[in-house]
Design goal:
Length: about 50
C-alpha cells in the first residue's frame, strides 16, 4: 500500500507505473523539438511576405 489508510495502492500491472512516465516524457520531448520549428517557420514566412 502506498499510503496506509488512504486506500491508494500500486496494483497490477505494475509496469504501467514505469511505462506511463516514459510515454509522457517522449510526448513532451517531441513537442519541445517540433513546436518551436513550426512557430519559427510561420514567423519567417510572415516576415518574407511583408
Amino acid at each position: 500500500m502506498l499510503i496506509p489508510g488512504a486506500g491508494l495502492t500500486i496494483g497490477a500491472p505494475w509496469w504501467t507505473w514505469l511505462v506511463a512516465p516514459v510515454i509522457v516524457w517522449l510526448v513532451t520531448a517531441l513537442a519541445t523539438w517540433l513546436l518551436p520549428g513550426l512557430f519559427f517557420k510561420k514567423k519567417v514566412q510572415e516576415r518574407r511576405a511583408a
